[in-house]
Specification:
361 residues; 3-stranded mixed β-sheet; 13 strands; 21% strand
Length: 361
């Protein structure tokens, strides 16, 4: 629309244009009022919904616990403080989780999950027992792979968890964590447990000695004392140790295995009882040496009982009385330990009772 000249007065708009302009203003005001009304209505509905959800709806009718094997559902629910008919959205998750973790050492994590319209699920992740530590001969402590003390002041070591030497827990009680100066030993323990699980040893290891980081040792099946050396190539060592035990040694073999120097494993048949720290572990078959006193007089390595028991069954006509029996027993003890896969039989030239097995790449 052209601007009027300086010396000319602006003419008023025609009546039709003035009427249209007034109608536009009225529409804008109406729209503004409607929008405000809608917003107020939405806010009121939201507030009413929150009030109803916190007072009338979503009342708890059932509480379940999953992943917990050491504690009963009733005691966990009671310790959580969750009450039936309580509104599920008024629960303080962090406080409940902290209370459960403080009360129950075997719990590593707790997560509260709401199942609409009225269910609560406490999802528990438990600690993994890693070893039993002996404080003294009548005081044992169970620790987890995170360094948490799960149980303390036990009068006897529980079955199924190996004993560990080289970790100190004298001042720790259930629910506490090992001090910082024990984290290196804990790391060695976790690496050894992971390697054992990866190589299929299962629960056949009874005892670890982690006091020397350059020569870790363990007791297998209560009869084979194994030197592992350092953490280097630990899983490869255990794989070959497992292969030798399963395929080249008799089930009655008792003695030592030295796998600390790759690529060789040396086996020595002997009575390993003196090698075991009696303050930490007592083997079940302690009565066997008393029953084997007669063959023990012929050879110092009397722990290999099954091969020696076959000697008295030889007919009396083939031996000059009892003098030949002691001569046959040392031969039986040295020969069965020769691995079948070793070529050219180099062990026959050695009379020290040690057998060498090399790693096959």
């Amino acid at each position: 629309m052209p601007k009027p000249a300086k010396n000319q007065r602006s003419r008023p708009a025609p009546p039709a244009q003035q009427k249209a302009h007034v109608q536009k203003k009225r529409r804008r005001k109406r729209r503004g009022r409607y929008t405000l009304h809608y917003l107020l209505l939405v806010v009121m509905m939201a507030v009413a919904g929150v009030i109803l959800s916190l007072t009338v709806f979503f009342k708890i009718t059932a509480v379940t616990v999953t992943g917990c094997t050491h504690y009963s559902t009733n005691e966990v629910v009671a310790a959580s403080g969750i009450q039936l008919e309580e509104n599920m959205f008024r629960l303080k998750d962090e406080e409940i989780e902290a209370a459960l973790l403080a009360k129950y050492p075997y719990m590593e994590q707790v997560h509260i999950r709401r199942v609409l319209p009225s269910g609560i699920v406490l999802e528990v992740t438990e600690e993994t027992p890693a070893a039993v530590v002996a404080v003294d001969s009548v005081n044992y402590t169970i620790i987890s792979d995170t360094g948490k003390v799960l149980e303390a002041n036990l009068t006897a070591p529980p079955e199924g968890i190996p004993l560990a030497k080289g970790i100190e827990t004298e001042s720790s009680s259930a629910g506490e964590y090992l001090p910082e100066d024990q984290q290196e030993a804990l790391s060695m323990l976790n690496k050894l447990n992971a390697a054992l699980a990866a190589t299929g040893f299962g629960g056949e290891v009874d005892y670890y000695d982690l006091s020397n980081e350059f020569n870790m040792t363990m007791l297998y099946d209560g009869r084979i004392w194994i030197e592992l050396g350092s953490e280097s190539e630990l899983e490869d060592k255990l794989k070959f140790i497992k292969e030798v035990i399963d395929n080249q040694l008799e089930d009655t073999f008792m003695g030592t295995m030295d796998a600390s120097q790759r690529p060789e494993i040396w086996t020595t048949p002997m009575d390993i009882t003196p090698l075991i720290d009696q303050d930490l572990i007592s083997l079940q078959p302690q009565e066997e040496p008393e029953e084997e006193q007669e063959p023990a007089q012929a050879a110092g390595e009397s722990s290999i009982a099954p091969p020696q028991e076959e000697a008295p069954s030889v007919p009396a006509a083939e031996k000059p009385a009892a003098s030949s029996q002691p001569e046959e027993q040392p031969e039986e003890e040295s020969q069965p330990q020769v691995p079948q896969d070793v070529p050219e039989e180099p062990v026959e030239e050695e009379d020290d009772g040690n057998d060498e097995v090399s790693f096959d790449d």
